[in-house]
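Problem: given the chain below (328 residues), write out its structure.
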Amino acid sequence: MLLITYGTRPEYIKVLPVINEMKKRGMLFKTFFTGQHTDLLKKAEKPDYILSIDNGPNRLDSIVQSILNKEEIFADIRCVMVQGDTSSAFATALAAFHRKIPVAHLEAGLRTYDKYSPYPEEFNRCAISALAEIHLCPTTVSAANLKKEGRNGVHIVGNTVLDNLNEVTTTASNTVVVTLHRREKLDQIKDWFLAVNNLAKEHKHLEFILPIHPNPEVKKHANILSDVKVVDPMGHTDFIKHLSSCAFIITDSGGVQEEAAFLKKPCIVCRDFTERIEGLGVFSVLCKEPSELSGMIKWATSVDLSSSVCPYGDGKSAQYICNLINNI
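Solution.
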């Protein structure tokens, strides 16, 4: 029996194609919801196991502590699949390792080689790689990272987030989609919001739209965005509709970089480093400081991506993964 874990919206979006493909094939699995984004329980099929996080003074500690010593979740499980780089993914992989249950790591091998960028994700994914037997890598670059680290069981399958986009049609508009929320950027979020708002003032022909992240440290600065359309967090379907029809994207998200490349939308990445280096210089550019943002608009509004090939997968990742899992 395979145990598939998720706890956040991005994790669920990326494991859902695998869940659907396994159902289609009649494969046996259980699901474990690790409890971060509780609104998922209203939208997703009811998980087999639901974790309640016991909050203490440190949220990351609380997540890890809450997952350990949950014996009933791992009974009769022959393999545990974790996705990405959250603290809950790390804790679940650790719990599986403590029980000598093989771990399959979905979206494995991404690296910045700076454990504080992104924080805590870079540590989490490196730690999961040390625990995992099956490394499901999105690209040749991520696979090469793991081989350089001496890992076995490395497979290139593409990124499952793209499986959700196979039926999406792209169009063009004057909309700019903005998402900014990463933990390591919170001390600068006010400056980033000011830079985005100045762009909106300078480029009146563009409509800037920002789904505000629910983190209070982000929301408290929303009043800065006087010339930006600030909206509530969107469901994935609505967000993809905006992404597929926009002019370009400003983001600090990892998954959005992949979705943007598949949809052939220019992406300005507001981070010091990105683990999605495959798209740099073609689909995306790095913007390390708010003061650099205005200088990147010319690129974003003029680059032609129509003939460029997405480096993150072909939209068939779940099929490849289920073929591999079936043979384990």
